[in-house]
Amino acid sequence: MEAIISSSSCVFYRFLTTKDKFHTFIDAKYEVCQPDDTNENNDTNNETKESSVEEPQVKKLKWDPEDKKRLRGQNKSRPHRKPTMYEEKPLCVSVIQGNRKCFYGDKCKFHHVVADYMASKPPDIGDSCHLFDTFGKCQYGLSCRFGKTHTTADFQTLEKADVMKTYENRTPVKNSLTKDLQNSLRKRQVSFKKSEDYLKTFSNYKDKTEPKTLISEMSIATMTHKPMSMQPDATVCSAKRQISPEKPPAIKTAGPLTDVDVVRLRSCEKKQVDFRDKLYLAPLTTCGNLPFRRVCKRFGADITCGEMAMCTNLLQGQQSEWALLKRHESEDIFGVQVEGCFPDTMTRCAELINNHAQVDFVDINSGCPIDLVYKKGGGCGLMARTRKFEQIVKGMNYVLDVPLTVKIRTGVHEKSNIAHKLIPELKNWGVSMITLHGRSREQRYTKLADWDYINTCAELASPVPLFGNGDILSYEDAVKAKDTGVSGIMIARGALIKPWIFTEIKESRHWDISSTERLDMLKDFTNFGLEHWGSDTRGVEKTRNFLLEWLSFMCRYIPVGLLERVPQKINERPPYYMGRNYLESLMASQNVGDWVRISEMLLGPVPKNFNFLPKHKANSYK
Ligand SMILES: Cc1cc2nc3c(=O)[nH]c(=O)nc-3n(C[C@H](O)[C@H](O)[C@H](O)COP(=O)(O)O)c2cc1C
């Protein structure tokens, strides 16, 4: 290879087009792992205090602190700096919000004297504030890093009344956790009436406080909720009628009593979502945040899903976990993904989401391979714990008014696929859609997804829609995938590498996107990020961090105009090449220093002592 450019932090080589320069790219978001000694065929998982359902066969998992060091897929050793560390003494929120009384009084360690804060504040990043321009008001006021445009010489903050009017009574982002709900969850004052009804069907359920209802006499089997297309309405509806408690509780309404207050949705009246032939942006921990999803929506993604949330954390009212459920108004078909391993917590969590969030579907992540989840019996561990899986699916389906979907893998071990055995069961248990990632847990990303197997499974799943997932990076890949008979496709890394893949698929073309267009896309992301995480130093650094995580995938894109043969394949490592201009070369660099440089074009210089190592370390080379 011939070195062309050499700068302090990066070296590019002219793209020599011999095939031998391509070698398999082993992506290991979650590193490749060995089969572990969990007994897959038994319910060998832990019973923790979170579960009140007795499971006599359950073997306790011993928590060995030494194991922590060995947890795979966590990348725990990477340097971690909280965005709060970048500002020594921020301005107190009480001052930002208009000099209201500081809750912490004398003990508050933040600035209260505006002039002192302004003297120590780092310089502004840009001349216009996206929040001020868009909403007519910047809630970060004096602490905004683009604040000059909306701050007067005597430190007053400005507002644009006419622009503000457009946003009156409009909430572009939904599903925030309210303080009231958080307090109720912490004090365990939230009612899980429907979940309790369901959980009482277990003969070994411990809650002795509630009198038994009709439900306890019913077999779980009668509670199966098959999608409308598969089951005559009468079967489902009569089962539902039986399980209502004999005396319904008094109805609380916030106005006159209407049908909506009295008549609950029957399972056959569950909200329906037409999943077929849609492009589904995969749930992506860390990278699939709300600003990134907004970018993908603009490029044509049809279905979006929140990052995986842990059901126990949601039930505890953890703010950071609830942030994963947030939905932007542009996300018209939006679901949330939850992970858990017990029927009681998963059922309650579904009821909580049903009652307090606006979602179109709820997805169970039974494909997650990471040790932290798998060893507890969650993620793809559930695929081998069919009894628990059944109870979870039926319980969640019972409490949800929206469809329940499931994401699975081919199986746990490489040479023993189990998805085909599970799919007929999932149909019977009543899931509304199945996504199949065509690789096993053991394989991670080392081999190509098995689309022949996905095809077989799609036939088995019919009439329940099955989405195929794995290795789609071009519209040709998508066409081939659809030909296998799947109802739709899910795209994960392909969207991170080139979010415009959705446009390419919809328009059946290769888009030789320019580096300026890509920079504009990154600019949109940073603006959405500032809206989402804030335009103060903390928000700017959070936005930068998520931008860098994304750039660690995006650098793998090779511009169409430079390819010897189209399309680029996901499992081929991009060779070193020189772009058609400086920016294109910079965007192709696999050096963290260059990603940081791109972030500086959009978000100003990094703070002192800044360091970054991507979470998904397979993508970081320096
Ligand atoms: C960065 C990253 C984060 C992911 N996070 C999740 C997740 O939260 N939930 C999930 O079900 N799968 C997650 N996955 C797996 C993807 O959804 C998808 O199943 C997998 O990457 C295969 O699709 P692909 O070949 O199109 O990348 C993640 C994958 C990546 C690369």
Could you explain the architecture of this structure?
- The protein is of the alpha/beta class.
- Among the domains are: 3-23 and 516-619, no CATH class; 280-509, TIM Barrel (Alpha-Beta Barrel).
- Helices cover 33% and strands 9% of the residues.
- The strands form three sheets. Strands 4, 5, 6, 8, 9, 10, 11, 12 and 13 form a nine-stranded parallel beta sheet that branches. A two-stranded antiparallel ribbon has the order 1-2. Strands 3-7 form a two-stranded antiparallel ribbon.
- Helix 10 crosses helix 21 (515-533), helix 21 (515-533) runs antiparallel to helix 22 (537-554) and helix 22 crosses helix 24 (592-603).
- The model is unreliable at 1-73, 208-249 and 618-622 (pLDDT under 50).
- Residues 29, 282-285, 287, 307-308, 337, 365, 367-368, 407, 437, 469-472, 491-494, 616 line the site of flavin mononucleotide (FMN).
- Residues 36-83 are annotated as: Disordered.
Overall pLDDT score: 81
**CATH class value of one domain:** Alpha Beta
Report the count of strand segments. 13
Number of helices: 24
CATH topology of one domain: TIM Barrel
Radius of gyration: 26 Å
Give the class from helix and strand content and strand pairing: alpha/beta
Main sheet record: 9 strands, parallel
> Whole-Å distance between the termini?
19 Å
Strand content: 5-15%
CATH superfamily name of one domain?
A: Aldolase class I
Helicity level: 25-40%
Shape descriptor reads globular
Bound molecules: flavin mononucleotide
Give the oligomeric state: single chain
| CATH-scheme architecture of one domain | Alpha-Beta Barrel
Sequence stretches where pLDDT stays below 50 over 5 or more residues = 1-73, 208-249, 618-622
